Amino acid sequence: MELIINGGRRLRGAVRVAGGKNSSLAIIAASALAPDVSTLENVPHCRDVETLLGILEALGASTSLEAGRLTIDARGLNGHVAPYDLCRSMRASFYTAGVLLGRMGRAQVPLPGGCSIGARPVDFHLRGFAALGARVVTEHGYMKASARRLKGNTFYVPRSSVGTTINLMMAASTARGATVLQNAAREPEVVDTAVFLNLMGARIKGAGTDAITIEGIKELHGNSYTIIPDRLEAGTYLMAGAASGGDVLVEGMIPEHLIALLAKMEEAGIEVIRNTDGVRARSVADLRAVDVDTAPYPGFATDLHPQMAALLTLARGASTIRETVFEARFAYTDELRRMGANIKAEGDSVHITGVERLTGAPVEAPDIRGGAAVLIAALAAEGTTEISRVENLDRGYEGLERKLRLLGAQISRGGSLESREVG
Ligand code: EPZ
Fold this sequence. Notes:
By secondary structure, this protein is of the alpha+beta class. The chain has helices at residues 21-31, 47-58, 84-88, 95-104, 123-131, 162-172, 188-199, 231-243, 259-267, 305-312, 331-338, 368-380, 391-394, 400-406, and strands at 2-7, 12-16, 37-41, 62-66, 69-73, 106-110, 135-139, 142-146, 154-156, 178-182, 203-205, 211-215, 224-226, 247-251, 270-275, 278-283, 292-293, 318-322, 342-346, 349-353, 362-364, 383-388, 410-414, 419-420.
């Protein structure tokens, strides 16, 4: 399966951003901490969400997702061994470790594989569970952990880690006593998960700062909640509009979640107009080169680095993006070079010299955000681009063709033999 894009058209119009994939994955997992029913609104229909729902169903929960509304009945959750095949395909499956430990007192969860952006170990998670009193061993590709009941403790997270912060927040919610997570991640997805956990009866304070306190309680209950919008999808569409020389309004997003990106887009000469329900990005002049360092929130998000690189391949001058979070998220640069970009990865940085134009070519989506970079380049390039490994894009973006067509893109999805329209 591949996406076929006839590029070189200025994107214009408005698109509504979906609910946050990464927030949804954390909150869906958290809902299984309670032997109860929860209803979540604004859940994106993307592959990662479907994978996690499959994992929870294999553990005994039942779920139903209709038009962004997800009902999870976790009363029947009775397994403590997460399914190897489903877990291997998605790192966020490791959230089941914190949930099963917090609810069942034991967990057997496959160690997530690395992917094309880095090794992505889970050593901090394992050390955190041990700090909470769990016996933790890794063998035969699994983490096996158990504890009669976890015991609150203070744990310094060795480096800013969204997954570690969320996993330990969930496990600590039902521990005996208080836990303090020091050097906690401050991402909006951490805050969203803490807000939902508190609606379930947890007692969490300080989410959004680097010190989070969790007073453990015996049992949580279900609740209803609306997931925050996806800041990464929003940023991707804003940069796609700018790279095409267009004028795109992204509705339903939270501008405060993208302060660093919006500042860098303005520095690159793009007009950014913020209003209460969204942000509009207009190309008003030639793009200017800028330098970017990725950083944990509220810094420039690593998950927007590849998309920014695609934009900067068309900016006048030389730009550098220093990637400080993942050691290997550079596979997309090979694909952009096929389209005529002057881009090279060296050490922890990507060096870009702007070119007049990109040209369409057969390329692939190496991972979710690398795929988004290739998509942005294809929309701006002259001629036709075929993007293979589209499943990587589908992991993080719902309704790609529908939303891009709203902005005037010429895009279709087809097997290599024939092109087939998808809604
Ligand atoms: C989350 O991944 C996101 N995924 C990622 O988005 C995002 O890139 C990342 O946070 C950073 O913001 C989800 O929320 C599902 P980390 P996570 O723990 O939690 C190292 C996307 O495109 N580390 O914050 O796995 C790690 O290798 C995805 O939507 C350890 O060394 O990231 C990385 O270098 C891609 N040991 C750094 O910390 C550990 O035990 C930050 O990783 C854990 C992490």
